[in-house]
Amino acid sequence: MNTRLVRISLALCAAATVGGCTGVLAHKGAVVDPQLAASIQPGIDNKTSVEKLLGRPTFTGQFNANDWYYLSRDTKQIAFRNPRVREQTVLLVKFDQAGNVAAIQKSGKEYVAGLDPSSRKTPTLGRQRGFFEDLFGNIGTVGAPGLPSGQ
């Protein structure tokens, strides 16, 4: 009876541990319907019709307000790890000065960049000091010869 209880409790602990490692799927950004995006035609549609079809853009161009970007990203995160990009869509709608669609560009996950910092240390000039030197380094320096006194 006792070994049966131990086996059941171990099975429950294992199930809880495995259950904690399930992935969490998340969607961030615009929800762009591919059929609606394909129906936009340069020279025919304008800002008003694009806004009615796709909604307001995720952001506009920094250097050209006539560039509208619709960004959509699906990620998966397992337990406490960083989320990984599963799918990404960037739809760029360019307008001419009159507000008509001039061009449409679509890109995907190929532009996702993974950045790895070189290390966790910031390089500094000067003397390398350890933890204890930083902690006890000022003992005895108050009132030392050559330093201004506190009088």
Automatic annotation (TrEMBL):
**Where would one find coiled-coil regions in this protein?**
none
What keywords would UniProt list here? Cell outer membrane, Membrane, Signal
Outer membrane protein assembly factor BamE domain sequence ranges: 29-104
InterPro entries, alphabetized = BamE (IPR026592), BamE-like (IPR037873), BamE_dom (IPR007450)
Note the PANTHER family from the entry.
OUTER MEMBRANE PROTEIN ASSEMBLY FACTOR BAME (PTHR37482:SF1)
Name this protein carries in UniProt? Outer membrane protein assembly factor BamE
Species assigned in the record: Sphingomonas hankyongi
Taxonomically, what lineage is the organism? Bacteria, Pseudomonadati, Pseudomonadota, Alphaproteobacteria, Sphingomonadales
